[in-house]
């Protein structure tokens, strides 16, 4: 996939995987920082000794929302930039499913399939991605989501006929 594409190229990519991110290591300092930012200090995330003794995980696990929040970093890492885009907006999710816990120290990456791309208004392109966050060396995904983003652009750059 090229690092940069044009608005007119986006509709032709629907149905294809448009990016797979680099691996990100989810370590205890990252989990602890997220716990502090969200005030979610549940022991399964922040107490390795207790989590090892009292959970089936063998230690601490990442917050599901931490894994979800890393989609932004994964997106920037692997999706082609739209040449005409002036701003990107996170519109939301249709569906998020936390499939498997991410154990501390594991590496994850995102795979982005463009499910839909439609022009809205004079200067917006709404993209829906089917995202899967994989856990290295594990069969089951950490999460799946349908993520909707908006690419804003100058209306004069809108391709003809769309």
Fill in the keyword field for this structure.
162 residues; 8 strands; alpha+beta; Thiol Ester Dehydrase, Chain A
Task: Give me the secondary-structure topology.
Blueprint: E1 4-5, E2 17-20, E3 24-25, H1 28-38, H2 43-46, H3 48-54, H4 64-69, H5 71-78, E4 81-82, E5 85-98, E6 107-120, E7 124-135, E8 143-153
Parallel strand pairs: 1-4
Antiparallel strand pairs: 2-6, 3-6, 5-8, 6-7, 7-8
Structural class: alpha+beta
* Major β-sheet annotation: 6 strands, antiparallel
Average pLDDT confidence is 96
Q: Using DSSP, what is the number of strands?
A: 8
Count of distinct structural domains: 1
Radius of gyration: 18 Å
Unreliable stretches covering 5 or more consecutive residues = none
- Under CATH, the topology can be stated as Thiol Ester Dehydrase, Chain A
Strand content: 35-45%
CATH superfamily: Hotdog Thioesterase
The general outline is elongated
* Annotated CATH architecture: Roll
């Amino acid at each position: 996939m090229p690092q940069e594409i044009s608005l007119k190229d986006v509709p032709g990519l629907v149905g294809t995987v448009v990016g797979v991110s680099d691996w990100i290591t989810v370590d205890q300092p990252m989990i602890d920082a997220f716990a502090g930012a969200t005030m979610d200090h549940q022991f399964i995330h922040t107490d390795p000794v207790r989590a090892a003794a009292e959970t089936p995980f063998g230690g601490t696990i990442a917050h599901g929302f931490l894994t979800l929040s890393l989609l932004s970093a994964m997106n920037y890492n692997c999706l082609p930039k739209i040449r005409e885009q002036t701003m990107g907006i996170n519109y939301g999710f249709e569906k998020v499913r936390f499939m498997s816990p991410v154990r501390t120290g594991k590496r994850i990456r995102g795979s982005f399939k463009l499910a839909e791309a439609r022009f809205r208004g004079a200067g917006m392109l709404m993209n829906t991605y089917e995202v899967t966050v994989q856990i290295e060396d594990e069969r089951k995904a950490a999460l799946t989501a349908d993520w909707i983003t908006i690419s804003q652009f100058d209306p004069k750059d809108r391709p003809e006929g769309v």
